Amino acid sequence: MRIVYRVLSTAAFLMALLAARSAYGQGGATGAISGTVVDTSGGSVAGADVQIIDTRTETVVRKLPAGSDGSFVAPLLPPGTYSVVVNKSGFSQAKADGIEVRVTETTKVTITLKPGAVSEKVEISAQVATVDTTSATTGQSLGTETVRELPLATQNYQQLLTLSAGAQGELNAAAQLGRGSVKLFVNGQREDNNNYLIEGISATDYNVAQATYVPLPNPDVIQEFKVQTSLYDASQGRNGGGNVNAILKSGTRELHGDVYEFFRNDVLNANEYFLNRQGQPRPAIKQNIFGGSLGGPVVKENYGFF
Asked: What transmembrane ranges does the database entry give (predicted)?
């Protein structure tokens, strides 16, 4: 009986390893790049050397060969923008820039090689698949531009979580101060069924599990966040509701920073409709929040701080 149990356990372990290979290995705060190397006729190019370069630091973060069918997979990549460089004897070097990797997602690209000397370098526009066909997970990833451009009266990025399909919440009161009141309901489930992650690390209050008790990063340091609403895998959380994953910015090869003032004053606001009907004045709101950020390289530009 023990021998049978060991054989079954070993078989289950091997099956889990094979399944993990096909899942491209996205962790809680990472994504992946998968692709195919082809020639100008569309045929697969086997054995090409593929390099994945992080454009923030201009360093090579992955080196891998393409398979016999021209395919390659680079898993566990931090979210950001990458370049893919492909070399193969008898072909010119091909480089595709601006490959976006988003948290928990796999970006699929097709790299086309042209005949020529290896010393020749060709800048190409890779064919990037906009629909992820490798996962049934539903959800939406929102980046820095969205956080910066949309109005956040309380500077709480959680007010944007309801932009994802299947997520809903209460209307935000523009006159609120502090972090405001945010309630998130995903697919009709209770608020405490959600799971909150920051950089892939659980930030959920296991006693209450509501957004009110989750640590709140400044919107200026958020690179992107994603709300997964259903069908996410076991690496993403402990609850059956929404899975919220916030990714923070990191440094680049150049020193950069900014300063800001978040200014609110009742002189700039109109009175509320119901206060007007009751003949009451608009509430006093005077808020001045000053802040700043700084980022740059460390350790010979291989790492960064922010």
From this structure: none
